[in-house]
Amino acid sequence: MSWVVLLLAGLFEIGWAIGLKYSDGFTRLYPSIFTVVSMAISLGLLSLALKQLPLGTAYAIWVGIGAVGTAIVGMVWLGESMAPMRLISLAVVVIGLAGLKLSSVS
Question: Could you cite one Gene Ontology molecular function of this protein (predicted)?
């Protein structure tokens, strides 16, 4: 169950990263509220997952989900570059995250 909680924490991290883009430096009310709420939920879920999961593994996976997910959303939703090297780099990160998960004892 801790892995599911960690996945949800990572998804909320994607949400707050996107929210930062749309909050325009916290000058737009609703995107700013969305961002802060997403941050709080993400960190709260991460803290719950850390009760059972190793710190280094859980934190790296949380950050990785956020980074890869945000990059994918940027490419798909915001029209950012889909250059082959960028896609290969994201794939390498995903492989690293899978390796961390598979090597974890929890």
Answer: transmembrane transporter activity
Phi, then psi, of 82 in degrees rounded to 5: -115, 40
Cα 88 from Cα 40, distance rounded (Å): 31
Residues 19, 25: Cα–Cα separation, whole Å: 10
- Looking at this protein, which amino acid is placed at residue 77? W
Q: Using an 8 Å Cβ cutoff, are 16 and 22 in contact?
A: no
Instruction: Please tell me the pTM assigned to this model.
Output: 0.89
State the 10-residue block means of pLDDT for the chain, 106 residues long. 96 97 96 98 98 94 96 97 97 93 76
Residue 105 pLDDT = 66
d(CA 51, CA 94): 24
